[in-house]
Every structure is written in structure tokens, then in C-alpha cells.
Amino acid sequence: MYEGDIASVLLTEDEIQARVKELAVEIASRYPVGSPQGDLLLVGVLKGAIFFMTDLSRALPIPTQMEFMAVSSYGSSTSSSGVVRILKDLDKDIAGRNVLIVEDIIDSGLTLSWLMRNLSSRDPASLQVVTLLRKPDAVRTDVEVSMIGFDIPNEFVVGYGLDYAERYRDLPYIGTLDPKVYEGDGGM
Ligand SMILES: O=P(O)(O)OC[C@H]1O[C@H](OP(=O)(O)OP(=O)(O)O)[C@H](O)[C@@H]1O
Ligand code: HPA
Ligand SMILES: [Mg+2]
């Protein structure tokens, strides 16, 4: 599939699945069952986090509830537009809840810092973040990320939910995209 478009496999399906299980254990240790704030509320950031969210929630040994928010800042580019747009907001009020943002990747960190500001203004009891991937540039932003699956090099990656112009999300692994695919789009 996508013959010739993937330059290299960065994380195999097995590596991703093993790390998701470790993250689930880490998350469960932070949220005691039976808290007065109710079940942990996972907020998945669409569309990129779709597979991470569904795999993580099923690996978690504690009861969780799910909400989704859709935001976009990349569109058909390999660099952030710098403008975060809400395409779909949460359905429920998160005031007084323990909220865990589930992200696929923190790259420039712009989306997450915007999300943290937006969600903390809704008065959750607690607000933490788990991301599957983080790139080095994100370290320069001031957002505190509680749990990280993998730190990866500064290359545009696709697969396991991550897209380029809406393609490649359906790959079960994460790979780097051959630059010939995005040459001329003005991105990285
Ligand atoms: O740290 P940043 O530089 O802000 O990049 C990270 C964000 O960018 C991607 O979303 P995108 O805007 O591509 O929307 P998508 O999830 O629907 O693909 C990704 O899924 C993160 O949410
Ligand atoms: O490397 C990336 N790949 C796909 N989507 C992204 N959104 C931010 N960084 C990336
Ligand atoms: Mg995208």
C-alpha cells in the first residue's frame, strides 16, 4: 500500500502496541478508581488521535469515558498554519472532571498549548496530556506533557492516524514520508 511513498518505517505496529500498553499502565496508576470526580474522561483530538485513542482506551484497566474534539491547523501542508480551528467541540461539560487529553503528536506544540488554554478555562478538576509522539521543537513550548510514547526526530511522519493531506492515516505503523510526495507545498 502507498508503494514508494514511505521512505522508512520509524515505529512498527508491534512497537506502537507495546508502548500503548505501557502508557495504559502508567495512566491507570495516576487515576485511582472510585474518585469523587467520576470516571476518567479521555478527550481524543481528532482526527490524528483516533487509533491511539481506541487502542489506549481498550488497554486501560480502569473505567473511562470518551469525548472528542476536532481541531485542525495543518490542512494539506507539512507545516502548521499557526491557526488552530475548532471543527467539532466537546458534547459534554467537563467542569469538575478528571480530563486526559489524548494526542497523536506534539510537533510545534501550538495545537496543544491552544487546547490546554481552551480546556482549562472550562474548569476541569484536573487536566493532563498523553501523546504518542513528540518532536524536538515541542520542547521549546511551555506546555507540560505528562506522558509521552516516543520522542522522534524532526521529520514529517504518517500512519497510525497521522496524515498528509488526509492520506496514510490507515497505515498500522508510523513512517517517514518521502519528500517527493510533498515537494512544492511550501512546508518543511
Ligand atoms: O504541535 P502542532 O505543530 O500543533 O501539531 C500537532 C497537531 O497537528 C496534527 O493535527 P492536524 O491539524 O493535522 O489535524 P488532524 O489531526 O485532523 O490531521 C496532529 O494530529 C496534532 O493535533
Ligand atoms: O509529522 C507530522 N505528520 C503528520 N501530521 C502532523 N501534524 C504535526 N506534525 C505532523
Ligand atoms: Mg493532519
From TrEMBL:
GO terms for cellular component: cytosol. GO terms for biological process: GMP salvage; guanine salvage; hypoxanthine metabolic process; IMP salvage; purine ribonucleoside salvage. Keywords: Cytoplasm, Glycosyltransferase, Magnesium, Metal-binding, Nucleotide-binding, Purine salvage, Transferase. Residues 15-164 form the Phosphoribosyltransferase domain. Gene3D superfamilies: 3.40.50.2020. Transmembrane segments: none annotated. It is found in: Cytoplasm. It catalyses: IMP + diphosphate = hypoxanthine + 5-phospho-alpha-D-ribose 1-diphosphate; GMP + diphosphate = guanine + 5-phospho-alpha-D-ribose 1-diphosphate. One of its GO terms (molecular function) is guanine phosphoribosyltransferase activity. Its EC number is 2.4.2.8. Pathway: Purine metabolism; IMP biosynthesis via salvage pathway; IMP from hypoxanthine: step 1/1; Purine metabolism; GMP biosynthesis via salvage pathway; GMP from guanine: step 1/1. SUPFAM superfamilies: PRTase-like. Its cofactor is Mg(2+). The keyword Cytoplasm applies. The keyword Nucleotide-binding applies. PANTHER family: HYPOXANTHINE PHOSPHORIBOSYLTRANSFERASE, HYPOXANTHINE-GUANINE PHOSPHORIBOSYLTRANSFERASE. Belongs to the purine/pyrimidine phosphoribosyltransferase family. This is Hypoxanthine phosphoribosyltransferase. The lineage of its organism: Bacteria, Bacillati, Actinomycetota, Actinomycetes, Mycobacteriales.
